């Protein structure tokens, strides 16, 4: 197992965590943001002091890489790169929507045939969303969706679909199919990143620190709603 610093700044929540041997051993979170520019450096300094004071070698940095807030992602990825350069350790990039699925799978009784649809708010009736099965294999890739009564109908006809994230609440009045399930209060948090980060370490799935960019910048910038800029 590895010791990994986790950074999550894709939404209004700023969070930092350290995991070792598959367990979270340090966590700092602030839900009053967005205040990443003010808080992230403090949280990361505290996390690094924690591992140094306990003589724990830091093996990698994992950062949530979108989709999400343009400013938040830039701050988080820049901080992650800085730590990687400073300590000469590898960088792990984790999709934000995949991170959001971790607490749902760990803390809720989800049927084997169910689908998971994490959503990030993108203004009005728009969301960034993806559809996963329980193994986190994408049944439908990440997209910018305008929600109406027919959204995700092809999936809802066959099995239960669980919607969650800060974009899901506003969809309840539109998505009323009997197979639609909504889970409240699910946020992408650093403390939920460790299972995915450990998997990346095992596969040596590391990013190029010099050239890595958030998914948001590469794939969504052309159609980004103004709220996320």
What percent strand?
A: 25-35%
Helix content: 25-40%
Structural class: alpha/beta
Output the number of helix runs. Answer: 6
Low confidence ranges: 225-229
| Largest beta-sheet characterization | 5 strands, mixed
Shape: globular
Output the radius of gyration: 17 Å
How many individual β-strands?
10
Multimeric status of the protein:
single chain
Provide the fold topology.
Layout: E1 3-8, E2 14-20, E3 23-30, H1 36-53, E4 60-64, H2 70-87, E5 91-94, H3 96-107, E6 115-121, E7 126-132, E8 138-146, H4 153-156, E9 161-164, E10 180-183, H5 194-203, H6 215-220
Parallel strand pairs: 1-4, 4-5, 6-9, 9-10
Antiparallel strand pairs: 1-2, 2-3, 6-7, 7-8
Helix pairs in contact: 1-2
Walk me through the structure.
- The C terminus is likely disordered.
- A 5-stranded mixed β-sheet has the order 3-2-1-4-5, sandwiched between helices.
- Helix 1 packs parallel to helix 2.
- It is built from 6 helices and 10 strands, in the order E-E-E-H-E-H-E-H-E-E-E-H-E-E-H-H.
- Strand 1 and strand 2 form a beta hairpin.
- With 229 residues, the protein is α/β, with parallel strands linked by helices.
């Amino acid at each position: 197992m590895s010791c990994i610093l986790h950074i999550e700044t894709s939404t209004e929540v700023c969070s930092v965590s350290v995991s070792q041997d598959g367990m979270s051993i340090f966590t700092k979170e602030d839900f009053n943001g967005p205040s990443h520019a003010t808080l992230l450096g403090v949280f990361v300094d505290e996390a690094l002091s924690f591992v140094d004071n306990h003589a724990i070698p830091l093996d990698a940095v994992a950062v949530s890489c979108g989709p999400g807030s343009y400013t938040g992602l830039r701050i988080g990825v820049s901080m992650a790169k800085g730590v990687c350069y400073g300590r000469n350790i590898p960088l792990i990039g984790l999709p934000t929507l995949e991170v959001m699925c971790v607490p749902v799978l760990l803390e809720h009784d989800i049927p084997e045939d169910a689908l998971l649809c994490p959503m990030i708010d993108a203004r009005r009736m728009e969301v960034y969303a993806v559809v996963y099965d329980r193994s986190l294999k994408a049944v439908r890739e990440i997209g910018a969706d305008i929600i109406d009564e027919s959204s995700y109908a092809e999936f809802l006809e066959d099995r239960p679909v669980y919607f969650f994230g800060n974009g899901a609440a506003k969809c309840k009045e539109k998505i009323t199919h009997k197979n639609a399930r909504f889970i409240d209060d699910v946020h992408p948090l650093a403390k939920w990143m460790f299972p995915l980060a450990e998997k990346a370490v095992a596969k040596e799935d590391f990013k190029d620190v010099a050239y890595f960019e958030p998914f948001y910048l590469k794939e969504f910038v052309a159609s980004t709603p103004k709220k996320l800029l």
